[in-house]
TrEMBL record:
<feature type="domain" description="Histidine kinase">
    <location>
        <begin position="350"/>
        <end position="585"/>
    </location>
</feature>
<dbReference type="GO" id="GO:0010105">
    <property type="term" value="P:negative regulation of ethylene-activated signaling pathway"/>
</dbReference>
<keyword id="KW-0547">Nucleotide-binding</keyword>
<feature type="binding site">
    <location>
        <position position="513"/>
    </location>
    <ligand>
        <name>ADP</name>
    </ligand>
</feature>
<dbReference type="GO" id="GO:0051740">
    <property type="term" value="F:ethylene binding"/>
</dbReference>
<keyword id="KW-0902">Two-component regulatory system</keyword>
<feature type="binding site">
    <location>
        <position position="69"/>
    </location>
    <ligand>
        <name>Cu cation</name>
    </ligand>
</feature>
<dbReference type="InterPro" id="IPR003018">
    <property type="entry name" value="GAF"/>
</dbReference>
<feature type="transmembrane region" description="Helical">
    <location>
        <begin position="92"/>
        <end position="113"/>
    </location>
</feature>
<keyword id="KW-1015">Disulfide bond</keyword>
<keyword id="KW-0256">Endoplasmic reticulum</keyword>
<dbReference type="Pfam" id="PF02518">
    <property type="entry name" value="HATPase_c"/>
</dbReference>
<keyword id="KW-0186">Copper</keyword>
<dbReference type="GO" id="GO:0038199">
    <property type="term" value="F:ethylene receptor activity"/>
</dbReference>
<dbReference type="InterPro" id="IPR014525">
    <property type="entry name" value="ETR"/>
</dbReference>
<feature type="cross-link" description="Glycyl lysine isopeptide (Lys-Gly) (interchain with G-Cter in ubiquitin)">
    <location>
        <position position="711"/>
    </location>
</feature>
<dbReference type="InterPro" id="IPR004358">
    <property type="entry name" value="Sig_transdc_His_kin-like_C"/>
</dbReference>
Length: 735
């Protein structure tokens, strides 16, 4: 039996390969023809593509490749020469286009690579811009938080509220687990836990300020990450299973606390810091970011500024409260002082009037008694009574003057007067006493001394009388000289300088005696009120110790200076004073100086006088004086009685006016009304008063009185008053 060992294939092997090539060329041709269509669509849609012509060329290359494979289908069988030519042409064109495309790509690829490089650069720039935008957004977010925190912190100026608000806002903004503030103790050697975020009343324990971690934080203005296990970071007890969060600390400057002196804060002379500690949540992978640390640093600075403002406010409020307390105390003291001054003035006014009324009776009756026939012993007694009364009246005047000088109510009564006559009048008053003691007195007036000056004649006379009177009083032998000249600057009074002008000059008066003298160490005491030296002469001569004290105040009121020079006991002394006087334009005054003795024999017989005085004794004494000099006197005890009794026959009406109140002044107005139609027949109205202040004189003038007569009044004084009143129709010099 015969077995067949081979199987013949369906197609021969060569034919099968050819068949596969045929099929492959067909599909390659289809693919080549489809790719240009896609490139044409891409070029059409990509209007901004910079290499469109390259794509067109690449498309032609593919089309030719496809045509070559398509034509190649006819080469698998017997084909004509035409097919061979077409095939050859297609392959030649394909070769040309392929070479051109390859050469073109050599130039295009670097451009494409540079485009890729620019693309990468732009991508990097875009990424960098994204990072910068992220940083800007972070900074904006941080700035927003800082503004918000700053607003919350500065919304109050209470430092406790500031610190608590800072912790709360930081904890809310940064989502902190805990935040705390350590404040320096009063000694400045420790830090004390004062404020925490989560605990209303933290345990106030302290840590030494010399700890390395604290020194590290205080050594920089930046926020510093510290160990969660450091003493200042142990703010809350935590379980062992938790991982502690990151902790940062930052210093808070306490700006110049020593200047503010806050009660419960340390008094620091150098710059010190508080410590702020911030803790992220435990068991968290969160870490501190740079912008968060910057936020913490900015907030620490803002807290420092807010605390300084709060400290300034507390200090200013404390100063304001202290000032208000002082003002209240000063106002109370002022009211008490004003009340005391008013009470003193009222007391002096009342006592002055009440004391002058009996003094008026004593002096008036003594002067009347002096003109009767008396034995030598009786006359000596009467003269002693009269001298003592005058001394008491002088003391009363001194006390009142001193009181008004001290409270500033005394003012100078400026007027033009004859300065030469004033000195001669003072000597005339002093000479009788000096003659009794056998003390010669000489007066030396400089040739250039002005005759008529402007000043307070009464006060200047009082100063000269006090000083010359002291010289006579304390001298038992020797002589007394009074020198007056125009003062020019010298070295006698180094603390006193003059500036003479064309309208005023400085008068210098020197009173030199050869009496008891004064210890140099006692001289400063002489101008103290109620003070006396300890010499025998002083103790034996009496005196109140007010004369020089008042004279010094009068001299100061006249913008002058006064002092005393002495070489010691038994060597005499010299009193010197300077006062400022105005220069009068008058060269002469009409008439001659008044001599009180000229009025002793004045005739007042038949002169009708009405006396109104509520005090019976004073009324009787005044009537006695007037009757003694020849007047016809009628009396009235009340204002109404006086108004009914006064008539045109009366030439003078003496009326007592009492302080306080104006009731007795009203009678003057009513008398004026009564004589409205017969003004030339109205009697002269003279006030009898014990008040020596200027307001009494002003009030008398305002109510239409023609003169003021100060109690007490002696017989000679009454004669002079009536003479001057009848001659000049006005009398205010007696004040």
């Amino acid at each position: 039996m015969e077995v067949c060992n081979c199987i013949e294939p369906q197609w021969p092997a060569d034919e099968l390969l050819m068949k596969y090539q045929y099929i492959s060329d067909f599909f390659i041709a289809i693919a080549y023809f489809s790719i240009p269509l896609e490139l044409i669509y891409f070029v059409k849609k990509s209007a901004v593509f910079p290499y469109r012509w390259v794509l067109v060329q690449f498309g032609a290359f593919i089309v030719l490749c496809g045509a070559t494979h398509l034509i190649n289908l006819w080469t698998f069988t017997t084909h004509s020469r035409t097919v061979a030519l077409v095939m050859t042409t297609a392959k030649v064109l394909t070769a040309v286009v392929s070479c051109a495309t390859a050469l073109m790509l050599v130039h295009i690829i670097p451009d494409l690579l540079s485009v890729k490089t620019r693309e990468l650069f732009l991508k990097n720039k875009a990424a960098e811009l994204d990072r910068e935008m992220g940083l800007i957004r972070t900074q904006e977010e941080t700035g927003r938080h800082v503004r918000m925190l700053t607003h919350e912190i500065r919304s109050t100026l209470d430092r406790h509220t500031i610190l608590k608000t800072t912790l709360v806002e930081l904890g809310r903004t940064l989502a902190l687990e805990e935040c705390a503030l350590w404040m320096p103790t009063r000694t400045g050697l420790e830090l004390q836990l004062s404020y925490t975020l989560r605990q209303q009343h933290p345990v106030e324990y302290t840590v030494p300020i010399q700890l390395p971690v604290i020194s590290q934080v205080f050594g920089t203005s930046r926020a510093v990450k510290i160990s969660p296990n450091s003493p200042v970071a142990r703010l809350r007890p935590v379980s062992g299973k938790y991982m502690l969060g990151e902790v940062v600390a930052v210093r808070v400057p306490l700006l110049h606390l020593s200047n503010f002196q806050i009660n419960d804060w340390p008094e620091l002379s150098t710059k010190r810091y508080a410590l702020m500690v911030l803790m992220l949540p435990s068991d968290s992978a969160r870490q501190w970011h740079v912008h968060e640390l910057e936020l913490v640093e900015v907030v620490a600075d803002q807290v420092a500024v807010a605390l300084s403002h709060a400290a300034i406010l507390e200090e200013s409020m404390r100063a304001r409260d202290l000032l208000m307390e002082q003002n209240v105390a000063l106002d109370l003291a002022r009211r008490e002082a004003e009340t005391a001054i008013r009470a003193r003035n009222d007391f002096l006014a009342v006592m002055n009037h009440e004391m002058r009324t009996p003094m008026h009776a004593i002096i008036a009756l003594s002067s009347l008694l002096q003109e009767t026939e008396l034995t030598p012993e009786q006359r000596l007694m009467v003269e002693t009574i009269l001298k003592s009364s005058n001394l008491l009246a002088t003391l009363m005047n001194d006390v009142l003057d001193l009181s008004r000088l001290e409270d500033g109510s005394l003012q100078l009564d400026l007027g033009t007067f004859n300065l030469h006559s004033l000195f001669r009048e003072v000597l005339n008053l002093i000479k009788p006493i000096a003659v009794v003691k056998k003390l010669p007195i000489t007066l030396n007036l400089a040739p250039d001394l002005p005759e008529f000056v402007v000043g307070d004649e009464k006060r200047l006379m009082q100063i000269i009388l006090n000083i010359v009177g002291n010289a006579v009083k304390f001298s038992k032998q020797g002589s007394i000289s009074v020198t007056a000249l125009v003062y020019k600057s010298d070295t006698r009074a180094p603390d006193f300088f003059v500036e003479p002008t064309g309208s005023h000059f400085y008068l210098r008066v020197k009173v030199k005696d050869l009496g008891a003298g004064i210890n140099p160490q006692d001289i400063p005491k002489l101008f103290t009120k109620f003070a006396q030296t300890q010499s025998l002469a002083t103790r034996s001569s009496g005196g109140s110790g007010l004369g020089l004290a008042i004279s010094k105040r009068f001299v100061n009121l006249m913008e002058g200076n006064i002092w005393i020079e002495s070489d010691g006991l038994g060597k005499g002394c010299t009193a010197i004073f300077d006062v400022k006087l105005g220069i009068s334009n008058e060269s002469k005054q009409s008439g001659v100086p008044k001599d009180p003795a000229n009025n002793r024999h004045a005739n007042f017989d038949g002169l009708k006088v009405l006396v109104m005085d509520e005090n019976g004794v004073s009324r009787m004494v005044t009537k006695g004086l007037l009757v003694h000099i020849g007047c016809e006197v009628s009396t009235a005890s009340t204002s109404e009685e006086c108004l009914r009794a006064v008539s045109h026959e009366h030439k003078v009406v003496f009326m007592d006016v009492c302080m306080p109140g104006v009731e007795n002044y009203q009678i003057a107005l009513r008398i004026h009304e009564k004589f409205t139609k017969q003004r030339h027949q109205r009697p002269l109205l003279v006030a009898l008063t014990g008040n020596t202040d200027k307001s009494t004189k002003d009030k008398c003038m305002s109510f239409g009185l023609d003169g003021v007569l100060l109690k007490p009044v002696s017989l000679d004084n009454m004669r002079n008053v009536l003479s001057d009143l009848l001659e000049h129709r006005v009398l205010y010099e007696a004040m």
